Structure formats: structure tokens, C-alpha cells
Amino acid sequence: MKIDLTETTASKINKALVQGRRAIGTPAVGMVLTLVIVTDEENAYDALKAANEASREHPSRTLVVIKRVSRSPRGRARARLDAEVRVGADAGTGETVLLRLYGEAIDHAQSVVLPLLLPDAPVVVWWPVGGPTNPAADPLGSLAQRRVTDTYAAEQPVQELAARAEQYTPGDTDLAWTRITPWRSMLAAALDQQPSQVTSVTVEGEEYNPSCELLAMWLADRLHVPVQRTLSEGPGLTAVRMETKNGPIVLDRADGALATLCMTGQPDRAVALQRRETAELLAEELRRLDPDDTYASALKFGVERLGEYKEGLPGESAKTAEDAEREAEAQSAEDAPKGKAAAKKTPAKKAAAK
């Protein structure tokens, strides 16, 4: 069932939700959370399709916030809210409200969303594309216990990953991290089968793929060994090689679907490691609403690893040649007295030695 509302308000939308539930014979609210999707018109269909599939596992009220920018100056100034309420078969196993904001309403999306949140239920905000650098500081993100972004959808994924590491707040997560869950499980299981000290690791995957970077950061954080990042043609993450004292452990996935696990003293095994759809990734993130400490540890550990990408980040200026020269002069000035003092002590030490 669909109910269209033009130039409406939050109270009218709530009434439409009650009307829709009564019309289909389910007056009770059986949702476990509120999922807020912040996207544009172009990506709204795919995001809503993924959310409806995830709602089979997590029945939720889904609020899709679509910010519509008018081309005319008059349209940009006039605040307006259009809504489409979906219940029953048109909304998966929950309820869906599409909110199209115009004019000044775009800058106050949180005021529109707040009255529509389910009472006493957790809130999750998801940005399929164009997520903010600091999700917790975003007006909509501040309403949520969990904030889901996807650095893979950014124009410069690795730079975006470095910025997220600097601005991390408990409750933030990334679908680029969720994509490597099967890899992390498989590698941990392999080390359980062959307990041996790991001496080095090589992670192979596409260039500028944040999932590859996150896996390398996680391995370096957990194993405390050097991790080398090498490039391949993909798709995505293609191989991980761990050198141990008992021989190498290799997990190789060349086709994006089936991987081969090779361990010394054991036959090669084929393991299912298929690339997952967005709906599966979203459903996994909705299973836990507490902060992901493992993700936080891996993300913060890799800040120095991603330091080479920090130039050009929003709000930061690249170091100029003059800045570098001034730092070098200051360092030389600090080192000079130390050198003289060391030179003066040398004859005394020689005399003491005699």
C-alpha cells in the first residue's frame, strides 16, 4: 500500500502510517529499529532495495531522506516536504517513508526525521554514497547509535579512509570493513589449524580499494608483523599470504567467488568466498548496535600507514617547501648545541680513559 503526501508535515506522515497499518490489518508496530538512509534521487532505488531485503532479518521503519536541490532561485528558498508512505508488501517486512526535501528544509533534515523515529528503539543512519567525513558530527548522524558509511563509494577511497580514521567516533562503521568479514574469519581459522608464529604478511588486491587497506591494517594490528600491500587487477581483494615458521599460509581468490586455501602439510582446499551484495552487508551491520572495537583498533592503527594520503584532505593544507625548510633549520639549531657539548666532553673522556 502506498500513500502519497504533497507539501506535508511529520504529523500527517505519522497519521498516514497508522492509517496504512489499519488498512492492511496490522495495527501493532513490530519493528526493532529505525533505519535512516541519506541519499540522492539517483541512488535511492538501489539503497531502498537493499534495505527492504535486509528488513527480512531486521524488521524496521525505514526513512529515506532525499535532498532535492531546485535549479531556480525561488525553488531553492522555499521549504517543502513531499512524502511517500509504504506499508505491507511494498515495504518489505517493515514500514518505509520516502522524504523528499526542498529548499530550506534540506538544512534541517533532522527536524523532519526526529518526530518519525520509533520510540525506545535504536537508530541507524546509513549513507550509501557521499557520507560525511565525521558522521557523528552530522545532524542526522547525531541521532543514531550506529552510523554506516561506505568509503568504496567515495571519489578518493583511501584518502577518505584516512580522514575517517582521524575523525572516528564509537558507533561509526564502514561497509568496506564489513566486506572483509569472511576473509578475517577464514584467516583466523587457518591460524587455529596451524598455530605458528607469523613473520610477515602480503595482502594483494585492487589499487585504491579500502577493503584491502583495512585488511592489511587489521593484520598488522593483530599480528604485530610487517604487512606488505601489493596490487592486482582484482576483482577486489584477491590474495593473502602469511609467512610462518612452519611454512606459508595462502588464501587466493582470483575470480571473486571461489578461493583456495593452501597450508603446509595439508591438501589444498576450495572455500566459498563470494563477493556479497549490499543487502547482506547491511544486514550484518544491523546485527550489532554496539561500537565495533576491532574496527576502531584496526582503523586507528593504520593512520600512520595511510599518512602518505593525508595531503589534500578537507580542512588540511599540504606542507609547502618553505615549511619544510623552516622545520629543517629549526632541527639544525636544536642539534647544533648538542654536537658542541658532545665535542667538549670527548677530550675529558679521553683523559679519563688514560
Structure description:
It comes from Streptomyces olivaceiscleroticus. Residues 310-354 are annotated as: Disordered. The chain has two domains: 2-175, no CATH class; 181-275, Glutaredoxin (3-Layer(aba) Sandwich), CATH 3.40.30. Helices cover 37% and strands 24% of the residues. The chain has eleven helices and 14 strands. It has helices spanning 10-23, 41-54, 73-77, 109-113, 157-166, 175-178, 181-193, 210-223, 278-286, 293-301, 321-353, and strands at residues 2-5, 33-39, 60-68, 80-87, 95-102, 123-126, 146-149, 172-174, 198-205, 227-231, 237-244, 247-252, 258-263, 269-272. An eight-stranded mixed beta sheet has the order 1-4-5-3-2-6-7-8, with helices on both faces. The longest helix is centred in the C-terminal third of the chain and has 33 residues, at 321-353. The chain is elongated.
